[in-house]
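User: Structure please.
Assistant: Input sequence and predicted structure:
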Amino acid sequence: MNIELDESDKKEILRYLGYRGTELTPKIEGDLLRAMDLANEIIRPGAVWKLFTLEYFEDGIGLKNTSCVLKGESIRKHLKEADRCALLCVTLGRDFDEEVERLMVKKPGFGVILNACGIQAVEKLADALQHEINERLAPQKTGVRFSPGYGDLPLETQGDFIRILNTEKTVGVRLNENYLMNPMKSVTAICGLYE
């Protein structure tokens, strides 16, 4: 699965950078275009997903045939009326993180712009994966993505998602002791499936 940043992504990247209707200087405009080109060169996209039947319990929502139970009112409201879900993980790969880290030392301003490009790119990759899932499962469609740490769904749930999707082997994504992903430009999420 490939994605590429283009002109349509500029508005979101600028939003991540904190620009709200501010006129861009020629230097910022040039740096933004160069950062988008660099991002397109170094992104090594990875994506994995699985389907699960949902089981509703008093204390949470289970993913059938796993030990994962999703806790919290937020996820219960989010998956309301879904009987199945897609669990997914996408990543831009380690090369992207390494380049951002290098630039934050040598050219921090440009590093910040490249980092914002990465935020947009990983969201675009997740959108592309959802589109692919929707095509394969039509007429069912995935709902809005919901990730560990949203609402009252504990961030620790990330460990279940990573384990169930076997992301270390499938796409090279692992967790640190604080349940943060490495590579950093990675997303795990759950989406309900609806007619």
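The first helix runs from residue 10 to 16.
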